[in-house]
Design goal:
Layout (H helix, E strand, L loop, with lengths): L19 H28 L7 H11 L13 H34 L11 H14 L9 H21 E2 L2 E2 L1 H25 L2 H12 L7 H20 L1 H7 L3 H6 L4 H23 L5 H13 L3 H25 L8 H22 L6
Antiparallel strand pairs: 1-2
Helix pairs in contact: 1-2, 1-3, 1-13, 3-8, 3-11, 3-12, 3-13, 4-5, 4-6, 4-7, 4-11, 5-6, 5-11, 8-11, 12-13
Length: about 375
């Protein structure tokens, strides 16, 4: 062990790597840029719609609500009420859902070691869809207006645990087996969803189709209050697992030698992904491709290190969904487009490009 006197230079082994400071500066700049863009986009989205509220008035309403006499209040007599009862809950829900799906996608890609992985692989989206459709077709009302959301959340979690249980053998789970089991369960869930649509009446079919397309219409503060704690728990658990994910990227054997309990880590993260995705889809339906596209784009900028990839994906996912929801509300006058349709229109071509790129690089993803 090196002994350092007050006048002796710092040993080479104790000096930080010369590339650490620039990398840390780039990471900080990226996070600050994403946070600033998210803040501006959220305020702009809150002020856009049939009742337009200028950006300074939106910011002034926020300042006055927290007790600061800064900026003008909305000039329209219903402007402030519209912002706080309709617009802000929807914007906050978009941020939560986008952050949850993006972090879930980044975690899935880290667990499977593949940039094509996304949360739907473990069946959480299809299980949520079947459970929600069952509540619609059979008229379940045990939780009042929350029934569909509760069923979707429970269905997503149960399906994920079933996939993981079916893929275990001899006390461990192989990635390939988990993926193939997820594909099989997704196929069965799709058949069950088709059967439910056949059994339901016209109104039930329309409601199921609309739920599958995804929408943030009708978001309220009480729904945000349910989703926010679940998303917070999932994101915190993911961030705490960032170092283990980095070690897992070296390979299972190397990760075990470095002290990572691979099987326990995989179980934990699959449950975390299920929690994040189920919380995201329970109130707004299925929003496709966010968990695939956003983490991959962020990884192209930040590199594969999860300690910056996960928080950057969280901010980028929230930003993407806020912008997508703004488009859903404003692209067609007096209409609210399904947000899942918009994300699929962008994510589908990107997925095709990603397949081509992955094939050219022979599966490399660093």
């Amino acid at each position: 062990m090196a002994i350092v006197s007050p006048t002796s230079p710092t040993p080479v082994s104790a000096r930080p790597a010369p590339t650490d400071a620039p990398r840390r500066a780039r990471a900080t700049a990226l996070l600050a840029l994403l946070a600033g863009a998210l803040l501006v986009s959220a305020l702009a989205a809150a002020g856009s719609g049939q009742l337009a509220v200028p950006l300074p008035e939106v910011a002034g309403s926020v300042f006055h609500r927290v007790g600061l006499d800064i900026g003008p209040l909305p000039a329209h007599p219903r402007g402030d009420v519209t912002l706080w009862t309709i617009r802000f809950p929807r914007v906050v829900m978009a941020m939560l859902v986008g952050a949850a799906l993006a972090v879930a996608g980044a975690v899935m890609q880290g667990v499977f070691g593949n940039p094509l992985a996304e949360p739907s692989i473990v069946g959480v989206s299809s299980g949520a869809a079947v459970a929600a459709a069952s509540s619609i077709v059979f008229g379940l009302t045990f939780a009042g207006t929350w029934t569909i959301a509760v069923c979707a959340f429970v269905g997503g979690l149960v399906t994920t645990l079933a996939v993981y249980g079916l893929s275990r053998a001899d006390g461990r789970t192989e990635v390939v087996t988990l993926v193939l089991t997820g594909i099989a369960v997704n196929a069965v869930a799709a058949a069950g969803l088709g059967m439910l649509m056949f059994l339901g009446d016209t109104q039930a079919r329309e409601q199921i189709v609309f739920w599958q397309l995804g929408s943030l219409n009708g978001s309220r503060w009480q729904y945000v209050g349910v989703v926010a704690p679940l998303v917070a728990v999932g994101i915190v658990a993911s961030l705490l697992s960032a170092r283990s994910l980095d070690l897992l990227a070296l390979g299972e054997r190397q990760a075990r030698h470095l002290g990572v309990h691979v099987e326990r880590l995989r179980i934990l993260l699959v449950v975390v992904v299920a929690l994040l995705t189920a919380a995201a889809v329970s109130f707004c339906g299925i929003v496709a491709f966010v968990g695939l596209v956003v983490p991959h784009l962020v990884r192209m900028v930040t590199g594969p290190g999860h300690r910056i990839l996960l928080p950057a994906s969280m901010l980028a996912g929230a930003l993407v969904l806020v912008i997508a929801d703004l488009g859903a509300r404003t692209l067609v006058a007096y209409a609210d487009l399904p947000i899942g349709m918009l994300t699929s229109l962008v994510g589908g071509p990107f997925f095709f490009w990603l397949l081509r790129r992955t094939r050219r690089t022979a599966g490399g993803w660093s």
